[in-house]
Amino acid sequence: MQQSKYMKWFAVGATVGMLLILLGGALVTKTDSGLGCGRHWPGCNGSLIPTEITKEVLIEFSHRVVTGAVSIFIVILTFWTWRKLGHVREVKFLGFLAIFFLVAQALIGAAQVLWGQGDFILALHFGISLISFAAVLLLTLIVFEVDQKFDADEISIGNPLKWHTIGITIYSYFVVYTGALVRHTDSSLICPDWPLCYNKDPFNLPDNMYEWVQMGHRFAVLIFFIWMLIILIHAVKHYKEQRVIYWGWITAFILVVLQIVAGLFVITTGLDLIVSLFHSLFISLLFGLLCYMILLVSRSEYNKRNR
């Protein structure tokens, strides 16, 4: 029991740490601190520890330190859960995902510092980190499930919700990518109005790449919102008896609304840093929750095959 308690605290720490990596990476991007340490990695401006501290150096170097420290946490958590909870079907796969995509995002970050990368490649960086965060989050939820008498056998998800869950999770990743592309192409404030680029001229199509990137993201978010609303209505109507599904989709829809509101305020406040970080936080939590819904779908399918 004591060991279980330690594992829970360690898992929570790893999850929070992974969230800090995500937000730290967003902070680096939003403050243009990616070259705070120059073209040096893992060192900073020619030395292992920076000797001259500027805002950009502090942000970039702190992000590297946090990433390194949290990476150790995640590796330990992965092997710990493999050893103690290896009998749980999803544990080994999630551990592999957590480490693989954590390494992948670190390599992309290093490549950007050393050689530079195009905007369309850089936009993948946040999404890759997001997969690692989701894997660590699910590992943590599994650690807590073991002692909470969560009965996976009671989960039963019908085909409509099953395919909606899979589809919306994949689509959410596309929405994340379009949002990252907006930032990396410096298209965040290209449109002065919201929800249209120019509200006074609603039929005017974007006339340059930056407007297309910005409005493409907004259109993708609109589809995302409508789709999530459809899923919410379906879940509320048919899954009241399965609380984890019922409340899960209600929470997911609330996060979508918060994400859209944060996106609006990002524009109206002229890229306020705190608002921008909340924008990243809400989509990170939402993607993690959608991945948990995928896990529940997987369990439901497993249960059906083994009845």
From TrEMBL:
This is Heme A synthase. Catalyzes the conversion of heme O to heme A by two successive hydroxylations of the methyl group at C8. The first hydroxylation forms heme I, the second hydroxylation results in an unstable dihydroxymethyl group, which spontaneously dehydrates, resulting in the formyl group of heme A. PANTHER family: HEME A SYNTHASE (PTHR35457). It catalyses: Fe(II)-heme o + 2 A + H2O = Fe(II)-heme a + 2 AH2. It is a multi-pass membrane protein. InterPro entries: COX15/CtaA_fam (IPR003780), COX15/CtaA_HemeA_synthase (IPR050450), HemeA_Synthase_type1 (IPR023755). Interacts with CtaB. It is found in: Cell membrane; Membrane. Pathway: Porphyrin-containing compound metabolism; heme A biosynthesis; heme A from heme O: step 1/1. It is an enzyme of class 1 (oxidoreductase). GO terms for cellular component: plasma membrane. GO terms for biological process: heme A biosynthetic process. The keyword Transferase does not apply. Keywords: Cell membrane, Disulfide bond, Heme biosynthesis, Iron, Membrane, Metal-binding, Oxidoreductase, Transmembrane, Transmembrane helix. Belongs to the COX15/CtaA family. Type 1 subfamily. Pfam families: COX15-CtaA. The chain crosses the membrane at residues 9-28, 65-82, 94-115, 121-144, 165-182, 215-233, 245-267, 273-297. Heme binds at H217, H279. Its cofactor is heme b. GO terms for molecular function: heme A synthase activity; metal ion binding. Its EC number is 1.17.99.9.
